Amino acid sequence: MNTQPLAYRMRPEKIEEVVGQQHLIGPGKIIWRMVQAHRLSSMILYGAPGAGKTSIASAIAGSTDLSFRILNAATDGKKELQEVAEEGKMSGSVVLLLDEIHRLDKTKQDFLLPHLESGRIILIGATTENPYLSVTPAIRSRCQIFQVQPLSKDDIKKAVDRALSDKKRGLGNYNVKLDPDAENQLATATDGDLRSSLNGLELAVLSTKPVGDKKEIHITLPIIEETIQRKSMSGDKNGDAHYDVISAFQKSIRGSDADAGIYYLGRILEAGDLAIAARRLLVIAYEDIGLANPNAAAHAVQAVTAALQLGLPEARIPLANAVIELALSPKSNSAYMAINQAMEKIESSSTGDVPIHLKNTRNWGKSKDEQIDYLYPHDFPNDWVAQQYLPDKIKNQQFFQAKGNSKFEQGLFDTYKRLKESQRKGLKQ
Question: Which CATH number, 1.25.10.10, 3.30.930.10, 1.20.272.10, 3.40.50.1980, labels domain 240-327?
Answer without folding.
Answer: 1.20.272.10
